[in-house]
Design a protein that fits this description.
By secondary structure, this protein is an alpha+beta fold. 16% of the residues lie in helices and 45% in strands. It is built from two helices and six strands. 27% of the residues are buried.
């Protein structure tokens, strides 16, 4: 399946798609030293969240999709060098709204889990 959204997303910051099917996306991101917030290698949660957000956008795969809100919990820390895998599935469609389940794991350890409400706009957000 072809990527139709977020074409300029930088894989070093948001991850690399490894599976893209209708209503489903899996994206991987290896945490780098630049993502650390301390000398022990703790990765800032914004990178974990960004990976989940990008995977949600790919699960919808529309050029005009945006994130409206997120209800997620960080359940474990991520350390530099670990590979995060985000799995997102569109669970419901209501008009322009898409409800997406999101889960980010490191191996078999879940580090973020929740839902995102995304919207497919009629025109680009800057053209509103």
């Amino acid at each position: 399946m072809e990527i139709n959204t977020h074409e300029r997303a930088d894989s070093r910051l948001l991850g690399t798609p490894v599976l893209l099917e209708k209503s489903t996306a899996v994206v991987e991101l290896t945490a780098t030293e630049e993502m650390a917030v301390d000398d022990r290698g703790l990765v800032h949660g914004g990178f974990t969240f960004g990976l989940a957000d990008y995977a949600a956008m790919l699960a919808i795969n529309d050029p005009l999709v945006v994130l409206g809100s997120a209800d997620v919990k960080f359940t474990a820390p991520v350390k530099v060098g670990e590979r995060m895998t985000a799995t997102c599935v569109v669970e419901a469609v209501d008009g322009r709204r898409r409800d997406v389940s999101v889960e980010v794991s490191v191996g078999d350890r879940v580090v973020l889990k929740g839902t995102m409400k995304c919207y497919v706009l009629q025109r680009h957000v800057f053209d509103q």
